[in-house]
Specification:
Helix content is 30%, strand content 35%. By secondary structure, the chain is an alpha/beta fold. It has one domain: 3-Layer(aba) Sandwich (Rossmann fold). A six-stranded mixed sheet has the order 4-3-7-8-9-10. Strands 1-2 form a two-stranded antiparallel ribbon. A hairpin with a 2-residue loop joins strand 9 and strand 10. Bound molecules: guanosine-5'-monophosphate (5GP).
């Protein structure tokens, strides 16, 4: 997606250690027009799939997910990263965070995810795939079916895409694939 790549080159900040900051248009300040274009592109890429719900994980996946939900007129469920005290009928799974080197719980209410659901997962970044695999686990535990996963940015020098390729019948799409991040330099896959 050229518009997204141009924006990353213009406003993204890359650091040694393979971290890309996109705080001025995705992760802190958000650009709704770019988000809309992102959602349109997701809509195009998943047009061959049938699903009734979009799922994401708080917080940065919510903006692209709600934009896509708006365009497709589908409900959007966001998985919570902390287990709320008031939620009793829920499904949970664990996610390992490479950046924080710790495991945390994610959860969703059984009221909003169950056997009748075919869901598309949307998130901002695919790095090592831990968040995505945690959500896949959660969806499976709920008895729902995960039909696809869409990421705004994939860091293809990390293990995520390879790990997700092992999931059967899940279409994985990334709108911008980065093969190298150096201090002040972003290199995309062709
Ligand atoms: P994974 O679970 O695939 O290893 O990591 C995915 C999550 O880590 C994303 O949802 C995102 O929040 C965060 N993340 C991983 N790498 C980066 C990065 O380079 N930049 C930013 N802004 N977030 C990242």
């Amino acid at each position: 997606m050229q518009l997204l790549k141009d924006r990353i080159l213009r406003d993204g900040k890359s650091f040694n250690g393979g971290i890309l900051k996109v705080d001025s248009f995705i992760n802190h300040q958000m650009d709704p027009l770019l988000m809309k274009s992102i959602a349109v592109e997701f809509m195009r890429r998943f047009s061959g799939q049938s699903f009734n719900k979009i799922i994401t994980i708080e917080a940065s996946g919510i903006a692209p997910a709600i934009m896509l939900g708006y365009l497709l007129e589908l409900p959007v469920v966001f998985v919570k990263k902390a287990v709320p005290k008031t939620m009793d009928d829920m499904i949970s799974a664990q996610v390992y965070s490479f950046t924080k080197d710790r495991t945390y719980d994610i959860c969703v209410s059984k009221e909003f995810l169950g056997r009748d659901d075919r869901v598309l997962f949307i998130d901002d970044f695919l790095a090592n795939g831990n968040a995505a695999l945690g959500v896949h686990d959660l969806v499976t535990r709920a008895g729902a079916v995960l039909i696809g996963m869409g990421f705004i940015i994939e860091k293809s020098f990390q293990q995520g895409a390879e790990r997700l390729a092992g999931l059967e019948s899940v279409q994985v799409e990334s709108l911008a694939r980065i093969k190298e991040l150096k201090e002040g330099e972003v290199v995309f896959e062709d």
